[in-house]
Amino acid sequence: RKEVEQDPGPFNVPEGATVAFNCTYSNSASQSFFWYRQDCRKEPKLLMSVYSSGNEDGRFTAQLNRASQYISLLIRDSKLSDSATYLCVVRVNYGGSQGNLIFGKGTKLSVKP
Amino acid sequence: NAGVTQTPKFQVLKTGQSMTLQCAQDMNHEYMSWYRQDPGMGLRLIHYSVGAGITDQGEVPNGYNVSRSTTEDFPLRLLSAAPSQTSVYFCASSYSGGPVDGNTIYFGEGSWLTVV
Description:
The structure holds two protein chains of two kinds.
Chain A: E1 4-6, E2 11-14, E3 19-25, E4 30-38, E5 45-50, E6 55-57, E7 60-65, E8 70-75, E9 84-92, E10 100-103, E11 107-112
Parallel strand pairs in A: 2-11
Antiparallel strand pairs in A: 1-3, 3-8, 4-5, 4-9, 6-7, 7-8, 9-10, 9-11
Chain B: E1 4-7, E2 10-13, E3 19-25, E4 31-37, E5 44-51, E6 54-57, E7 64-66, E8 76-78, E9 87-94, E10 106-107, E11 111-115
Parallel strand pairs in B: 2-11
Antiparallel strand pairs in B: 1-3, 3-8, 4-5, 4-9, 5-6, 7-8, 9-10, 9-11
């Protein structure tokens, strides 16, 4: 089983739609969780961290379910500019003060006019 | 505010050649790392460093060397390039600290490497 699994998509949605991405992780030692956004031929950029209580940043809502080892990202009122690949990222602490990031393969979103 | 700077952005190598991908950051980050990204794959960790003089292997270290003589620089060396090393390489850095604090990882813009 892959450490971080995502549906690769693509998700093709019209402007204004609500879209949700899911991600599962296999390592119970996972400590921190993130969603990154990657535009075509660009570097990944942090979209938001994911906290146990759930968190929201404008149109974006992230949820974490530690018991089910599941992370989600909800995008409301999709914009054309939201078209990108969304990477689910988990930090696993292998015992030191620094953990390494494990990346999912990404979910591609295409928002159409 | 330069952030993480990678060079070169594009490179074509012949099989067997060696080269160094440069990475520098000006944020005084202790943690630096190199990833490769292949089509249909997530980013995979090659090597990382938690501070000057300290390096360690990631998931896919074979064929690559690193060193960390200063806090700012973390070059990645391809010893004898192979077609399987054709990929996009990203350097990244972050502050050190506990795993729960959500340290932001800053990525360089990427280096596109083709080995023929």
